[in-house]
Amino acid sequence: MQNLKLVHQARLSQLTRTAAALKAKYGATDSRTVTAEAAVTAESASVSRIAVASQQAATPAPTVGSGGWALHGRVYDAQLQPSAKYTVYLVNSEKAYQSQYGFAYTDDTGYFLINYAPAAGQAASAPSPLYVAIVDDKAQPVYLGTAAFQPSTGKATYQNITLAAGDTPLGDPPADIRQTALPPQPKSS
């Protein structure tokens, strides 16, 4: 994967130089310049997709407790850049927050981990279909999964999540998540 990424980065560099040279010689509206800039955009997207796949391949699966399960992955913006400090949680089909499974914050690489373990002596029950929901660092909902996540007991599931461009709020988050994603700030005197 690393070698593939290096090859595509070199190609992107070459395409970028070619596009700049064509723009300087023929202008921004020339068809050759437009075609070269489109190739740069496409190659940039390829480099980003390879980086995402490389990160996924390099991410170790978390240890899952007896009778539990885990959901982990990364959150990216529309340009496939990591989204840090976002809150990831699970809701049911009625969009109700499932607090028993907890939540996770994304780190600087967009990584999150929800690692569920049933309480001692409690039998693991098959949860109803769950959906991933995400709020941004201002506690505004920016993602609600449309495909159900069905946990597998004893296993970790990896998901890459790409947010739509613009981070348009989807409504109000549950009160528990709002307090978690945006805790009250101490009053200064």
Descriptive overview:
By secondary structure, this protein is an alpha+beta fold. The chain is 32% helix and 20% strand. The protein folds into 2 domains: 2-58; 69-181, Carboxypeptidase-like, regulatory domain (Immunoglobulin-like, Sandwich), CATH 2.60.40. The protein has a 4-stranded antiparallel β-sheet, with helices on one face. Helix 1 runs antiparallel to helix 2. The longest helix is centred in the N-terminal third of the chain and has 28 residues, at 31-58. The model has no long low-confidence stretch (mean pLDDT 84).
What can be said about this structure in brief?
This protein has 189 residues and is an alpha+beta fold. The protein has three helices and seven strands. It folds into two domains: 2-58; 69-181, Immunoglobulin-like.
Strand content: 15-25%
> What is the CATH superfamily of the largest domain?
Carboxypeptidase-like, regulatory domain
Q: Nearest-angstrom radius of gyration?
A: 21 Å
The fold-level CATH name of the largest domain is Immunoglobulin-like
